[in-house]
Structure formats: C-alpha cells, structure tokens
Write a structure and sequence with these properties.
Layout lengths: L8 E2 L12 E6 H7 L2 E3 L11 E7 L2 E10 L2 E7 L8 E6 L6 E4 L4 E4 L4 E4 L1 E3 L6 E6 L15 E4 L8 E9 L2 E4 L3 E6 L3 E4 L4 E4 L4 E4 L1 E3 L7 E6 L2 E2 L7 E4 L8 E8 L5 E3 L3 E6 L1 E4 L4 E4 L4 E4 L1 E3 L3 E6 L15 E4 L8 E9 L2 E5 L3 E6 L8 E6 L11 E5 L1
Parallel strand pairs: 9-16, 18-26, 28-35
Antiparallel strand pairs: 1-6, 2-7, 3-4, 4-5, 5-6, 8-11, 10-13, 12-14, 14-15, 14-16, 17-20, 19-23, 21-22, 21-24, 24-25, 24-26, 27-30, 29-32, 31-33, 33-34, 33-35, 36-37
Length: 391
Amino acid sequence: MVTQSSIKEWNQLELGAGGIQDFGLKLLHKSLVENGVSVIASQLDIVMKNRIQYLRYNELMPSPVLCIKIGKDIKIVGYFDFEESEDELDIDYEVQTAPYFTTKPSPLAVDLSQSATLTCAAVAADSDVKYKWAIGSRSFPSKVTGINTKRLVIPDVRSSDDNTYTCTISNEFGTLTSNPAQLTVTGLPEVTVDPPNQSVEVTQTVTFTTTVNGVGKENFSYQWRHNGVDIDDMTGSNLTILSAAENSSGLYSCTVCNQYGDWTTSNDSKLDVKPCFVTHPMDVTVNTNESVTLKCDAKGASKYEWRREGGVIRDDVEGKDTNTLVINKILSSDAGEYYCVASINGHNPIESSKALVVVNNTGSSKPDVVYIYDDTSANENSDQQYYCVIQ
C-alpha cells in the first residue's frame, strides 16, 4: 500500500476555477507497465466529471506520476514509489485546491411582496469555503439574510430589489465570483391598455379609461393629468368630462401607484374638441342687385371663414371672417353654394352644410352693367362705337 507519506515530491496544484475532492485511485500495476505511456482512470467517481485524472509512466522518472488534466494542460500532483511485485497500486490522498462552483446563482422572477431566494454552492478539497453575496453597486437592506451563506433570502421583495446579484466563494487558495444573476420583481403597476385618442364636439361627454395590472391592483390609486397638470378630484380608473369645452382639448394621462409607492404612467392620449353648429346657412333665391345675408352659428367657435364651392367670394362682400355673410347688390355671377368653416382659434375646423344662392335676372330690377369699352379700331374721322355688357 502506498500512502501520501511515500510521496517524494508534492507540487501545489493551482486550478483556479476547478479542483477535485478526496478520491481513491486503483489501477492494476501490470496494466500500467504494459501500456507504458498512460492509463486513463475514466471509471473513477470524481466530483468534477469533466476533469481527466490518470497515472503516467515516465521513462525518465521511474516512478509513476499522478497527474490531473485541465483542458490541454497537465499538472503534476506527485509521484510515488511502489514495488513491481505488487499486483495493485492503491493510492489514497487528497488535493488542496481553490474552491469551484457546483451550483451558480440563476436568474429569478418573483412577484412583488413575495420572498426571493438565490442559491449557490461550492467545494474545495480539504478546505472550508467562505461565501459572500453582493447586489449591484449598493449595499443590502437590513431585511436580507444569508449574505455570508450559500443561500441569500430577500423577504417581501420591492421594486428596489430588482437588481443583479453575485456570489463570491473563497478559501486560502483562491477566490471566485459568479456571473451576475438577475432578480426581476414582477407584479408592479403596469398600464396594459392606454386610453385612446378621442374627438368630440363642444358640450359632448367624453370618457377616458385605462386598464392596469399588478399585485394588489384593487388597491391602486390613480391621478389623471391634463397637459401634465393634475386634475383635481380625478383619482379613479376612469376620467369623465360631462360637457367638453374649448379648453378641454389637449393631452391626457393617468399615473397609477400601488401601496408601496411604485408607480407608472400611461402614454398620452389626445382629445380634440370641435365646435358644434347650431345654425346652418339657408338656401336663398334673389334677384340681381338685391342684398343677401347668410348666417351660421357654432358653439365653441372663435373663428369663422366663409367659402364658396368651386369659386371665390368677391372682395367687396362683407363678413367673410364672421358668422354672418352679406352680399350687397348681388350679381348673377355670385350665384352658387356657400358654406361656413368654424374653428377654435384655427384648430379642429368643421364645415357647415352648404347653402344654395340662386340669382334671377327677372323682375323690376335694372340690368347690371358689368363693364363698358370702346372700339379702338375706329379712326378719328369715323364714328366712335361703344359697347356695353349687361347681365
């Protein structure tokens, strides 16, 4: 039997991220000699299965050398004396190494107010392993337990616990830190459906509704805003404007908050408030040279503009930018369809219905002289001719 006391040379094994625990190695001496180069002990029950341990017979070093292979590197652990008459080579020994992870912390998602547990585990041969957890770039709150153990427990998680966590293991031979594991806190207030954009007429009722989700949503509080300013007493999940006014137009949003102070805000929703016609211009039939008055009226309108379908309105017509259009001494050429455009300071314009203006040339009215011109082709000795165009 060869024991650790028979080792002639012992080289400290520095494995960094890996190592092995106590294990027993048993190889037939006859097989070792016949193979000469190496005998792989693949049947061994080693903690790290991805490591290959074997005995190597070195002609320059008569005694077998116990080695460990890490990737392409072979590290000499030690070499031993034995008598060739022995049928078996039994070696029991232990290797002291830096710790390595057998379990690394994994990403975790936990609902708000629940408990979160992160776990890691490590081993190192013949040495105690120390643990130390860390959170992002800040310190742990007092509620957290297990900071220096394998298991980190975060009770009653809050949004502030949503962070990355690492575990560092160490002993006298080395230190190793895990990759960051993300703890995601779920169940925070979330707006799942934003209130839609809307367009209404003055005095109409409009309702904005937002749909939310999250832990304890039945106890959420709400605050509606208009153009970024809190609306007094609008603290429910719905916002209702009973009679939209000119100044109701703008952007609306809702901020949702849970009992722990976590909050979120919906996307902005736009409300357009348009004027509402209460009086439309009426059809009218007149004779030439008479006066015509067209009138319209719209709630909430601050600006009016008269238009003529397919044509322009004469420059001398009165009230083109008011709610009353007056055409004095109307001409046959003024006949057509007229309508009014009402808006709120030029925004959200709406059109009235069209009014048909019919101009007759009959009756007692005199013909309308449009223009007079002379025939300039006549010379000074001939009679001058004048032409008059009437309607």
